[in-house]
Amino acid sequence: MKLVVAFNAFKGSMSPIQAGEYFIKGWKSVRGGDEIVHFPIADGGDGTTDVWRYHFGGGVIYVGAHDALMRKVEVPVIITRQMAMFSMADVVGIANLSRNERNPRITTTYGVGEVISYLVKKGIKDIYISVGGSATVDGGIGLLLPLGFKVKGKSGVIEKARGDMILYAYDVSLPSSFPKLNITVLSDVKNPLCGETGAAYVYGPQKGLRGEDIDVFDSALRRWAGIVERKTGVSIHDRPGYGAAGGIAVALHLLGDVKIVSGIEYILEKAAFKEKVGGASLLITGEGKIDRQTFMGKAPYGVAMSFREVEKDGKVIAIGGKVEWEEINWHVFDAAFSLVPGPISLPLAMRNAPVFIEYMGRNMASALGNK
Question: Is 337 helix (H, G, I), strand (E, B) or coil?
Fold first, then answer.
């Protein structure tokens, strides 16, 4: 029997690679003769850097930068020839902030600009950025400061990096000389920049936006996009994907050519997923939480749909740390299971996730009989 094991991150407990390794260990303890394709997945959110290196290789360097609250961090960056890839979550990630620290009036993308600045000085012009898990809603305006751009308000140049820069920005001037970059944004959402399905309304509240601030930031993002459109000639308003990561792709247009792609679709294509899984009768996938958002472009949905294109009679089983059963699209998954064995506290569940997923692998294999 041939099966595919393709997990996304179980946020806070297991990386995509770790989840697959533990599951396979359990499965092989019962059915050691099966052919298993281990294909870790990511969609631009947590775990994308590890998954990228797993499939595409490259060396890792650590770049000094600042997080969303301007605290020092070391950011892992993958370098392959003249290409670099890094994750916003490692720079200005929301997971690095306590709930009380989440405030888009303060959180800034300045650190992202620091990483880009380092890469530019190294002569690297092809940059891939996974943008899931950010703590910012500043339209990427903060990242421009360490790159030499001048952001102007009504009272002059704005020099302090804060999220609320975007509320007062009315113009931006480009450095006298700046190399044109090719930037690919790996995203796990398709939301537009503004409006009821945009960055401020949909993702702002989880990043700390409250009450009237949601509308204030939505209006500011719209104005900021207009400024960048006039500078670059690029159409931004109402285009899908610009709502990702607080609208960071808006500012990136000032640095060169920007392409927004589905993180999972890009990885599946470039890592030749369809070529590797032919002949498999079963796909095991999953992530920390399976709910409505899973079926809006997240990694388990993407890998399931790609698998069904190759093996129309193949079965897809999903595993989630938490499963919202009523929100599952049963045309995508044939079955779904919760990772935890019963009522349990969240800290205990996350701490024991490796044990639970190995146990799940052993149990599923046992259901098919020894081999």
Answer: strand
